[in-house]
Amino acid sequence: MLINKNTHVIVQGIGKQGRFHLKLMREYGTKIVAAVSRSQTGELEGVPIYPTLADALAKHRADYSILFIPAKFAKEAAIDALEHNLNIIIITEGIPVLDTLEILKLAKKKKRTVIGPNCPGIIAPGKSKIGIMPAHIFKKGSVAVISRSGTLTYEIVSQMNKAGIGQSLVVGVGGDQLIGTDFVDILKILRKDTNTESIILLGEIGGNLEERAAEYIIKTKFPKKIVAYIAGRTAPEGKQMGHAGAIIEGSAGTAESKIKSLEKAGIKVARLPSEVVKLLSI
Amino acid sequence: MRLKEYQGKQLFNKYGILIPHGELITSIKPNSDKIAKAQVLEGKRGKRGLIKPATKENLTALFEHCKEILVEEKLTIEKEYYLALTIDKTEKEIVILFSESGGIDVEDSKNIQNLAYSNINKFQNKEIIQIIRAMHKLMIEYNALLVEINPLVLSNGKLIAADSKIILDDNIMHPDFKQDKTILELEAERSGLSYVELDGNIGLIGNGAGLVMATLDVISHFGGKVANFLDLGGGAAVNKMQKALEIVAKTKPKVIFINIFGGITRCDDIARGIVNQKLSIPLVIRMIGTSEEKAKEILDKNNIKSYDSMEDCARIAVKDANK
To answer: How far apart are CA B266 and CA A30, in angstroms?
Structure first.
């Protein structure tokens, strides 16, 4: 699994958002071992603050770093974390794509996991949360959710809860054009995860993550039930719909192309958000 | 942001890539033996009849489709190549796309070679290598996500970029290039709102791109037409919500659907924004998540109703819009 109760986490960047979510993650039970800040010292919610990542790692072991660093400085911070062999979760929105490319190249070389950029993070309900999602809507269970969007995930999760269905793992892979971990990477983990019985895939227009997931599902005869929903069926061509990655260019990236690919892989695709939970129980 | 052909060619020229002799015109000129190319962003211009001999008659027709026309010399064509640099999102590296047969529709062709930029020296032709290096420099310095020449033409022994397609990263400001955005879209951008004008009569405001897109789909599903896409983004505060309402109201929709799932965004902030920005347009509000109770209190005091289910709200909004 990606994360568990013993996953040690560092928070890079404790501005307004970083501080707020450090507190919430700790309340959820996530093992936050240190925070890194250039301008602040002392402690935050009982977590020691260090001026550099190297200083923090001299005192603490860590698996993941979560970045709340402004877009302009995010590359430097991410590269620093990867150089220290940490896996990273990048919450920041608006990082230049070529900066992300440099981050992901290094991650590939270092064999580290990068979630994001522009993502809500990961939560394994009842175990750990490295992200910004509202914890109270999640409940432990056996359905995993992989999504390109934060609030759409919350929407579906709250409907799951109403139907009494809990989650094993929820990953927001991010809304940018270029992201680290994608649908296929998470599916590879989930296929072997004994806590996960079935999977919800929440896609949207733009890019080809959904098509590649469908290929992988067919090629490897994926053994678990998957249902999907694709947002943006009625989005116009050539317009960027909020997420940097959500844009239709010609016939590429349309919801229709994604739905067709997924259905070819035997996946039921919901036409409305409220159908997702229904399809899961069929 | 996608550049127009002439803007891309200006960049090619700057980086030493040869381009045809040409002139950008904004009004009709006398007949010539040159080629007139409408400066629009849609692809397949040749097929759509947007590239024609530069006769006065053709120019007149083309100006009905666009404001700018690039008038260029005709090239003698010995060979056409396809050449592009882009980012391979799976391999996480810059790649060179190359084909011996350039021209229209090459995107659909299967015989495009795909080579990591680091393997540039596998090309035999020194001139092509030089062009690729120039394209790479342009890509890095201008934060481009795609630099494409289709076709790259061999003409009288010289390689000339007969067309250009460049997409720049919107995460970086590009003050040199004007964007095709409406006044309201620019106003929203300045306020940090993600806004796209559409042509229906139901205004839409929500938080999070995926949720707003899903809402758009749900409204269409129930037979409604949305006037706009507006994503408040994460953690929107009272004034941002007010600004969003102000912008959406300007297109005079029959009803505004507000769909909020509070996470980082607090419902009470949204509720205050709604109450402060007094509008005569009916609102249909769906609001759950962080600080939901406080929000309901604020709305109740002002006799504004809110709902829990987005699909129920969509039905109501569609009904109101069709009244």
So the answer is: 23
Give start-end residues of each CATH 3.40.50.720 domain in chain A.
8-115
Nearest residue on chain A to B223, judged by CA atoms?
A234
What residues of chain B, 29 to 68, have a C-beta less than 8 Å from chain A? 41, 43
Q: Which residues contact B229 (CB under 8 A, 6 or more apart)?
A: A235, A239, A241, A242, B194, B195, B196, B198, B204, B212, B213, B216
Does A241 touch chain B if contact means CB atoms closer than 8 Å? yes
Cα–Cα distances in angstroms (integers) from residue B244 to residues A167, B190, B192, B249, B274, in the given order: 34, 12, 10, 8, 10
The residues of chain A that CATH labels 3.40.50.261 are 138-280
Residue with tokens 């998540």: B289
Tell me if residue A243 is catalytic.
Answer: yes
Q: Does B90 touch chain A (CB under 8 A)?
A: yes
The CATH number fitting domain A8-115, selected from 3.40.190.10, 3.40.50.720, 3.40.630.30, 3.40.50.2000: 3.40.50.720
Domain A138-280: which topology? Rossmann fold (3.40.50)
A102: which 2 tokens? 């440099």
A202 touches chain B (CB under 8 A): yes
Cβ-contact B217, B225 below 8 angstroms: no
Q: Which residues of A touch B310 (CB under 8 A)?
A: 155, 273
User: Who among B211, B213, B311 is closest to A235 (CB)?
Assistant: B213
Q: What is the ipTM of this complex?
A: 0.89
Express each pLDDT in A137-194 by its tens digit: 999 999 999 999 999 999 999 999 999 999 999 999 999 999 999 999 999 999 999 9
pTM: 0.91
**At B111, is the secondary structure helix, strand, or coil?**
coil
pLDDT in tens, A54-101: 999 999 999 999 999 999 999 999 999 999 999 999 999 999 999 999
pLDDT in tens, B241-278: 999 999 999 999 999 999 999 887 889 999 999 999 98
For B43-80, the pLDDT digits (tens) are 788 888 999 999 999 999 999 989 999 999 999 999 99
